[in-house]
Design a protein that fits this description.
Elements: H1 28-34, E1 42-44, E2 52-54, E3 60-71, E4 75-82, E5 92-97, E6 101-104, E7 107-113, H2 117-122, E8 126-127, H3 137-150, H4 160-171, E9 182-185, H5 186-189, E10 193-195, E11 201-211, E12 217-223, E13 233-238, E14 242-243, E15 251-253, H6 257-261, E16 266-267, H7 277-289
Protein backbone atom coordinates (compact mmCIF):
# COMPACT_ATOMS: atom_id res chain seq x y z
CA UNK A 1 0.00 0.00 0.00
CA UNK A 2 1.26 3.41 -0.88
CA UNK A 3 2.06 5.47 2.18
CA UNK A 4 1.10 9.12 2.25
CA UNK A 5 1.93 11.72 4.82
CA UNK A 6 0.42 15.14 4.96
CA UNK A 7 3.11 17.67 5.55
CA UNK A 8 3.27 19.87 8.61
CA UNK A 9 5.30 23.01 8.72
CA UNK A 10 6.57 25.40 11.43
CA UNK A 11 8.27 28.72 12.44
CA UNK A 12 11.66 29.75 11.15
CA UNK A 13 14.72 30.06 13.39
CA UNK A 14 16.26 33.40 14.22
CA UNK A 15 19.93 33.40 13.36
CA UNK A 16 22.53 36.07 12.92
CA UNK A 17 24.97 34.90 10.30
CA UNK A 18 25.58 32.69 7.31
CA UNK A 19 25.09 28.99 7.66
CA UNK A 20 27.71 26.30 7.84
CA UNK A 21 26.61 22.69 7.94
CA UNK A 22 28.43 19.81 9.50
CA UNK A 23 28.97 16.68 7.45
CA UNK A 24 26.11 15.05 9.36
CA UNK A 25 22.99 16.86 10.61
CA UNK A 26 23.40 18.08 14.17
CA UNK A 27 21.50 15.98 16.73
CA UNK A 28 18.59 17.92 18.34
CA UNK A 29 20.06 17.54 21.83
CA UNK A 30 23.34 19.12 20.72
CA UNK A 31 21.50 21.91 18.92
CA UNK A 32 19.52 22.64 22.09
CA UNK A 33 22.71 22.74 24.14
CA UNK A 34 24.32 25.20 21.74
CA UNK A 35 21.26 27.44 22.00
CA UNK A 36 21.11 27.29 25.79
CA UNK A 37 22.89 30.63 26.18
CA UNK A 38 20.64 32.40 23.71
CA UNK A 39 17.54 34.29 24.73
CA UNK A 40 14.46 32.32 23.82
CA UNK A 41 12.57 33.86 20.92
CA UNK A 42 9.24 32.51 19.80
CA UNK A 43 7.34 32.73 16.54
CA UNK A 44 3.79 31.91 15.54
CA UNK A 45 3.93 29.77 12.43
CA UNK A 46 0.81 31.33 10.95
CA UNK A 47 2.80 34.56 10.70
CA UNK A 48 5.71 32.84 8.95
CA UNK A 49 3.54 31.63 6.09
CA UNK A 50 3.84 33.87 3.06
CA UNK A 51 6.94 35.69 4.32
CA UNK A 52 9.15 37.11 1.57
CA UNK A 53 12.52 35.41 1.03
CA UNK A 54 15.58 37.47 0.10
CA UNK A 55 19.11 36.65 -0.91
CA UNK A 56 22.07 38.09 0.98
CA UNK A 57 22.21 41.06 -1.40
CA UNK A 58 18.73 42.07 -0.28
CA UNK A 59 16.99 41.05 -3.51
CA UNK A 60 13.60 39.40 -3.17
CA UNK A 61 13.73 35.91 -4.67
CA UNK A 62 10.51 34.28 -3.50
CA UNK A 63 8.31 33.50 -0.53
CA UNK A 64 7.47 30.76 1.96
CA UNK A 65 4.54 28.67 0.83
CA UNK A 66 4.47 26.24 3.72
CA UNK A 67 6.47 24.81 6.62
CA UNK A 68 7.04 21.14 7.40
CA UNK A 69 6.76 19.85 10.96
CA UNK A 70 8.10 16.57 12.29
CA UNK A 71 6.41 14.50 14.96
CA UNK A 72 8.64 12.51 17.25
CA UNK A 73 11.23 15.28 17.35
CA UNK A 74 8.58 18.05 17.38
CA UNK A 75 10.68 20.32 15.21
CA UNK A 76 10.57 22.21 11.95
CA UNK A 77 12.36 20.33 9.22
CA UNK A 78 11.79 22.37 6.05
CA UNK A 79 10.39 25.60 4.72
CA UNK A 80 8.77 25.12 1.31
CA UNK A 81 9.87 28.02 -0.86
CA UNK A 82 8.64 29.31 -4.20
CA UNK A 83 11.08 31.36 -6.27
CA UNK A 84 8.21 32.58 -8.46
CA UNK A 85 10.08 32.23 -11.73
CA UNK A 86 12.76 34.72 -10.66
CA UNK A 87 15.48 32.11 -11.05
CA UNK A 88 14.03 30.53 -14.16
CA UNK A 89 12.66 27.54 -12.26
CA UNK A 90 9.02 28.01 -13.23
CA UNK A 91 6.34 26.71 -10.89
CA UNK A 92 8.57 24.38 -8.93
CA UNK A 93 8.69 24.42 -5.15
CA UNK A 94 11.76 23.73 -3.01
CA UNK A 95 12.08 22.13 0.42
CA UNK A 96 14.79 24.15 2.17
CA UNK A 97 16.17 23.02 5.56
CA UNK A 98 15.09 25.60 8.12
CA UNK A 99 18.66 26.03 9.28
CA UNK A 100 19.55 27.46 5.85
CA UNK A 101 17.23 30.39 6.50
CA UNK A 102 18.00 33.46 8.54
CA UNK A 103 15.55 35.83 10.22
CA UNK A 104 16.69 39.22 11.47
CA UNK A 105 15.22 41.16 14.37
CA UNK A 106 15.62 44.44 12.49
CA UNK A 107 13.69 43.08 9.50
CA UNK A 108 11.10 40.73 11.02
CA UNK A 109 8.96 40.52 7.88
CA UNK A 110 11.81 39.17 5.77
CA UNK A 111 13.61 35.85 5.63
CA UNK A 112 17.08 35.48 4.11
CA UNK A 113 18.40 32.44 2.30
CA UNK A 114 22.11 31.90 2.80
CA UNK A 115 22.98 30.05 -0.40
CA UNK A 116 24.23 31.17 -3.79
CA UNK A 117 22.02 31.63 -6.85
CA UNK A 118 23.63 28.62 -8.52
CA UNK A 119 22.83 26.49 -5.50
CA UNK A 120 19.20 27.58 -5.64
CA UNK A 121 18.92 26.93 -9.39
CA UNK A 122 20.35 23.42 -9.08
CA UNK A 123 18.48 22.48 -5.91
CA UNK A 124 16.10 19.52 -6.02
CA UNK A 125 12.53 20.77 -6.42
CA UNK A 126 9.06 19.44 -7.15
CA UNK A 127 5.91 20.46 -8.97
CA UNK A 128 3.51 22.46 -6.83
CA UNK A 129 0.70 20.10 -7.78
CA UNK A 130 2.66 16.94 -6.93
CA UNK A 131 4.21 17.05 -3.47
CA UNK A 132 6.69 14.31 -2.53
CA UNK A 133 6.38 12.24 0.63
CA UNK A 134 8.41 14.41 2.98
CA UNK A 135 8.64 11.66 5.59
CA UNK A 136 10.50 9.48 3.10
CA UNK A 137 14.07 8.72 4.13
CA UNK A 138 15.42 8.92 0.57
CA UNK A 139 13.88 12.35 0.03
CA UNK A 140 15.19 13.72 3.31
CA UNK A 141 18.67 12.35 2.90
CA UNK A 142 18.85 13.84 -0.59
CA UNK A 143 17.72 17.30 0.53
CA UNK A 144 19.90 17.39 3.63
CA UNK A 145 22.94 16.11 1.76
CA UNK A 146 22.49 18.70 -0.98
CA UNK A 147 22.35 21.64 1.42
CA UNK A 148 25.11 20.21 3.59
CA UNK A 149 27.34 20.19 0.50
CA UNK A 150 26.12 23.66 -0.48
CA UNK A 151 27.34 24.98 2.84
CA UNK A 152 30.89 24.13 1.80
CA UNK A 153 30.80 24.79 -1.92
CA UNK A 154 28.36 25.46 -4.76
CA UNK A 155 26.90 22.44 -6.47
CA UNK A 156 27.06 22.02 -10.23
CA UNK A 157 24.39 20.30 -12.33
CA UNK A 158 26.18 17.01 -12.96
CA UNK A 159 24.09 15.13 -10.36
CA UNK A 160 20.75 16.39 -11.63
CA UNK A 161 19.81 12.95 -12.98
CA UNK A 162 20.34 11.31 -9.61
CA UNK A 163 18.31 13.99 -7.86
CA UNK A 164 15.44 13.41 -10.29
CA UNK A 165 15.54 9.67 -9.58
CA UNK A 166 15.53 10.34 -5.84
CA UNK A 167 12.48 12.60 -6.20
CA UNK A 168 10.61 9.90 -8.10
CA UNK A 169 11.48 7.35 -5.44
CA UNK A 170 10.25 9.64 -2.68
CA UNK A 171 7.00 10.30 -4.53
CA UNK A 172 6.27 6.58 -4.54
CA UNK A 173 6.54 6.33 -0.78
CA UNK A 174 8.98 4.01 0.94
CA UNK A 175 10.91 3.76 4.19
CA UNK A 176 10.16 6.50 6.69
CA UNK A 177 13.02 8.51 8.15
CA UNK A 178 14.08 7.10 11.52
CA UNK A 179 12.56 8.90 14.51
CA UNK A 180 9.52 10.27 12.68
CA UNK A 181 6.05 9.48 13.98
CA UNK A 182 4.31 11.89 11.61
CA UNK A 183 5.15 14.66 9.16
CA UNK A 184 2.77 17.44 8.18
CA UNK A 185 2.52 20.81 6.55
CA UNK A 186 1.64 23.66 8.87
CA UNK A 187 -1.18 24.57 6.51
CA UNK A 188 -2.71 21.18 7.34
CA UNK A 189 -2.11 21.46 11.08
CA UNK A 190 -3.62 24.90 11.61
CA UNK A 191 -7.36 24.33 11.62
CA UNK A 192 -7.06 20.60 12.35
CA UNK A 193 -9.71 19.08 14.64
CA UNK A 194 -8.80 18.24 18.22
CA UNK A 195 -10.71 15.51 20.04
CA UNK A 196 -10.54 13.90 23.43
CA UNK A 197 -9.85 10.23 24.14
CA UNK A 198 -13.60 9.51 23.75
CA UNK A 199 -13.51 11.00 20.23
CA UNK A 200 -15.57 14.02 21.29
CA UNK A 201 -14.74 17.20 19.39
CA UNK A 202 -13.01 19.78 21.59
CA UNK A 203 -12.11 22.42 19.02
CA UNK A 204 -9.30 23.11 16.57
CA UNK A 205 -5.68 24.25 16.33
CA UNK A 206 -5.46 28.01 15.89
CA UNK A 207 -1.67 28.33 15.65
CA UNK A 208 1.68 26.75 16.42
CA UNK A 209 4.35 28.40 18.58
CA UNK A 210 7.98 27.48 18.06
CA UNK A 211 11.41 28.43 19.36
CA UNK A 212 12.80 30.66 16.63
CA UNK A 213 16.40 29.71 17.39
CA UNK A 214 16.22 25.94 17.11
CA UNK A 215 12.89 25.28 15.39
CA UNK A 216 11.53 23.29 18.32
CA UNK A 217 7.75 23.24 18.59
CA UNK A 218 6.59 24.19 22.05
CA UNK A 219 2.84 24.82 21.91
CA UNK A 220 -0.25 24.29 19.84
CA UNK A 221 -2.68 27.13 20.45
CA UNK A 222 -6.21 25.72 20.65
CA UNK A 223 -9.61 27.28 20.23
CA UNK A 224 -12.30 25.36 22.07
CA UNK A 225 -15.03 27.62 20.70
CA UNK A 226 -18.22 27.49 22.70
CA UNK A 227 -18.18 23.72 23.14
CA UNK A 228 -16.57 23.91 26.58
CA UNK A 229 -18.27 27.19 27.47
CA UNK A 230 -14.97 29.04 27.00
CA UNK A 231 -16.08 31.70 24.55
CA UNK A 232 -13.34 33.32 22.47
CA UNK A 233 -10.41 32.38 24.69
CA UNK A 234 -7.39 30.57 23.30
CA UNK A 235 -5.30 27.97 25.11
CA UNK A 236 -1.62 27.12 24.85
CA UNK A 237 -1.22 23.34 24.99
CA UNK A 238 2.26 21.78 25.27
CA UNK A 239 2.82 19.97 21.99
CA UNK A 240 3.76 16.79 23.87
CA UNK A 241 0.20 16.69 25.25
CA UNK A 242 -1.21 16.19 21.76
CA UNK A 243 -1.12 12.88 19.95
CA UNK A 244 -1.81 11.95 16.35
CA UNK A 245 -1.16 9.18 13.85
CA UNK A 246 0.61 9.37 10.52
CA UNK A 247 -2.58 8.50 8.64
CA UNK A 248 -4.99 10.62 10.72
CA UNK A 249 -5.63 14.34 10.22
CA UNK A 250 -6.97 14.99 13.70
CA UNK A 251 -5.14 15.37 17.01
CA UNK A 252 -6.08 13.86 20.36
CA UNK A 253 -5.84 15.73 23.66
CA UNK A 254 -6.22 13.25 26.49
CA UNK A 255 -7.09 15.70 29.25
CA UNK A 256 -10.28 15.44 31.37
CA UNK A 257 -12.97 18.03 30.62
CA UNK A 258 -12.91 19.40 34.16
CA UNK A 259 -9.18 20.04 33.81
CA UNK A 260 -9.72 21.84 30.51
CA UNK A 261 -12.45 24.02 32.00
CA UNK A 262 -9.95 25.29 34.57
CA UNK A 263 -7.07 25.57 32.10
CA UNK A 264 -5.23 28.90 31.73
CA UNK A 265 -6.27 30.76 28.61
CA UNK A 266 -5.90 34.18 27.02
CA UNK A 267 -7.88 36.57 24.85
CA UNK A 268 -7.19 36.07 21.15
CA UNK A 269 -6.52 39.81 20.85
CA UNK A 270 -3.94 39.82 23.63
CA UNK A 271 -1.40 37.03 23.20
CA UNK A 272 1.05 36.31 26.02
CA UNK A 273 4.81 36.29 25.64
CA UNK A 274 5.63 32.64 25.03
CA UNK A 275 9.29 33.38 25.64
CA UNK A 276 8.57 34.35 29.25
CA UNK A 277 10.03 31.55 31.43
CA UNK A 278 7.36 32.02 34.11
CA UNK A 279 4.54 31.67 31.60
CA UNK A 280 6.04 28.61 29.94
CA UNK A 281 6.84 26.92 33.24
CA UNK A 282 3.37 27.53 34.66
CA UNK A 283 1.59 26.23 31.55
CA UNK A 284 3.84 23.18 31.37
CA UNK A 285 3.29 22.51 35.06
CA UNK A 286 -0.48 22.78 34.70
CA UNK A 287 -0.68 20.07 32.08
CA UNK A 288 1.80 17.83 33.85
CA UNK A 289 0.52 18.35 37.41
CA UNK A 290 -2.72 20.31 37.14
CA UNK A 291 -1.41 23.27 39.12
CA UNK A 292 -2.89 26.69 38.43
CA UNK A 293 -0.95 29.08 36.21
CA UNK A 294 0.34 32.19 37.91
CA UNK A 295 -0.44 35.48 36.23
CA UNK A 296 2.39 37.66 34.99
CA UNK A 297 2.86 40.74 32.87
CA UNK A 298 4.03 39.60 29.47
CA UNK A 299 4.67 41.10 26.07
CA UNK A 300 3.12 39.74 22.93
CA UNK A 301 4.65 36.97 20.90
CA UNK A 302 5.51 38.03 17.36
Amino acid sequence: MKRRFATMVIALPLMTGGFVFAEDPMPPAKADAMQADHKVMTKRLSQCMGKDVYNQAGKKIGDIKDIVLDGGTNRISYAVVSYGGVLGVGDKLFAVPWRALESREVEPDKVFLNVSEDTMKNAPGFDKNSWPDMANATFRDQIDRYYNDAGKKDKDAKHEGQRTDDMKAADKGGPVKDGLTWCRRVSAVIGADVRNASNENLGSIDDIVVDAHNGKVHYAVLSFGGIMGMGDKLFAIPIKSLATKADDDKFVLDVPKDRLKEAPGFNKKNWPDFADPQFRSSVDDYYSTGREVKKSDTAKTE
